[in-house]
Amino acid sequence: MKEGRGDGETGGRGEKGNTQARPVSASPRLPVPQSPPPLKEGEDFYREGAFVVFTARYHLRRGYCCESGCRHCPYRAAADDAARDEEDFVGEGVE
């Protein structure tokens, strides 16, 4: 008795008599992500001593806040404004 050998008797897939490999079905290919455009010094960042400082333009192109406390983060400024407005609203509560 031949058990677990996956030879011609079962084809290794539990199918009797089928010893040929099945072709892989053609699946749609996912788009390959493109690399971002190169950064331009003076527009996307500038150097301050040994540091690289990203500009607001760079942050807007990136599309989100990394919450690292960046100097020119436009998202942090918007969050600070919203928090300040909320504090003002809460301060006007019912007495």
Q: Can you walk through the features of this model?
A:
The protein is 26% helix and 8% strand. The model has no long low-confidence stretch (mean pLDDT 77). The chain is α+β, with helices and mostly antiparallel strands and 95 residues long. It has helices at residues 56-62, 74-91, and strands at 45-48, 51-54. It is elongated and about 75 Å long. It is built from two helices and two strands. It has a domain at 45-91. The relative contact order is 0.07. The protein has a two-stranded antiparallel sheet.
Itemize the secondary structure elements and their pairings.
Elements: E1 45-48, E2 51-54, H1 56-62, H2 74-91
Antiparallel strand pairs: 1-2
Outline of this structure?
By secondary structure, this protein is an alpha+beta fold. The chain is 26% helix and 8% strand. A two-stranded antiparallel ribbon has the order 1-2.
Mean pLDDT: 77
- The Cα radius of gyration reads 30 Å
Helix content: 25-40%
Output the helix-strand order: EEHH
Q: Sum up the overall morphology in one term.
A: elongated
Q: Distance between the terminal alpha carbons, to the nearest Å?
A: 89 Å
- The portion of residues forming beta strands comes to 5-15%
Distinct helical segment count: 2
Question: Helix- and strand-based class?
Answer: alpha+beta
Tell me the total number of β-strands: 2
Low-confidence stretches: none
Spatial sequence of strands, sheet with the most strands: 1-2
Q: Main sheet, how many strands, which sense, barrel?
A: 2 strands, antiparallel
